[in-house]
Amino acid sequence: MTLGVAAAIGILGEGLARGHGGFSNVGDVALALAVAVCITVRRRSPVLSLAVTMGLLLLVLYLMHSTHTALAVAMLSAGTVAYQGRRRLSLVVGTALVPVVALAWRVAGGDGVGQEFFSYLVLLLAAVVGGDAVRSRRDAVAARAERELVAREAAARELFDGYRLQLARDLHDSVAHSLVAITTRAGVAAHLGRANGNPELLSALTDVKRVSADALHELRETLQMLRADGVSAPNRPRITSRQTLEGLVQPLGLAGLTVRLRCDPDTERAPSRVSNAGYRIVQESVTNVLRHADADTVSVSLAVEGGTLLIEVSNDGPPVGEPAAAALPRKGHGLLGMQERAHDVGGTVSAGPQLQGGWLVSARLPMSA
Length: 369
What we know:
Layout: H1 2-17, H2 26-40, H3 46-63, H4 67-84, H5 87-107, H6 115-196, H7 199-226, H8 242-248, H9 250-254, E1 258-263, H10 272-292, E2 297-305, E3 308-315, H11 333-344, E4 348-353, E5 359-366
């Protein structure tokens, strides 16, 4: 509204100064007000406003010779079209302005095509170019802000998924490991209770085994909802030492298995991420032995060779070819979790039956991770 009022006053004032009409002429006032209205609504319909404004300015030039004000109003309208439109529309407007300026030059009484004509034309085209440049800058800033917003949202989702996966891993590695040990020990005790003919003890131990097995099943179903495939998560630091590993393989000894443990002192030099990954891989391997393997002896070996932490967990189950379905782990979160742990630190892990019998889990984790 302010620009419209200023345009109307400028047209009438310049016309009065040039001796062509002014504030006392009703027709001139009406014409100036019409230009003011076009300027006011230029943002709502910039193309239509520009077309009408240019027509009104031709009358202004013919009746009042308000050249400078008319040029300023035309620049404002043309720049608005370029600012609110597209690059193609700016080119069309710039091209169309050339004959319009030539006509306006003739209407204003210009003689021939001289420097003043080209000055007016350049100023109008500069308004179009300036409006288009500002629009391009605005669009670029908006696009960059949108990309940054998308990137922040993606980072937040990745962080959330990482923590969710970390929770799933820790629940599986810790709680499931303990539940498997409870179930195994309860099964052994139930067998002894059956042999001793104690029905009450047998019933209690059977209930413990059933409840722990049900809890383990429900836990795995819950972890399925928490798990997000392909998302890596941070590892909590742990120290891979003989003392921690002895505590880790203790359920094997309680279950009646012979445990052979080898842990080189150099393994304590492993970074926290690597030692934690190694701990979890061994933990899952031990859990699988308790759950699936028909074995008497389990060997756990940790060594450092050529800047790589080597982990091997094996058992002496039945040879390949003999019926021993229980010796092979079922597909579940455990093997997938070991692969994810190794991948997080740039390592590899493999698991499979051995020709001489049993099951072997082998992992190679770079110490430089």
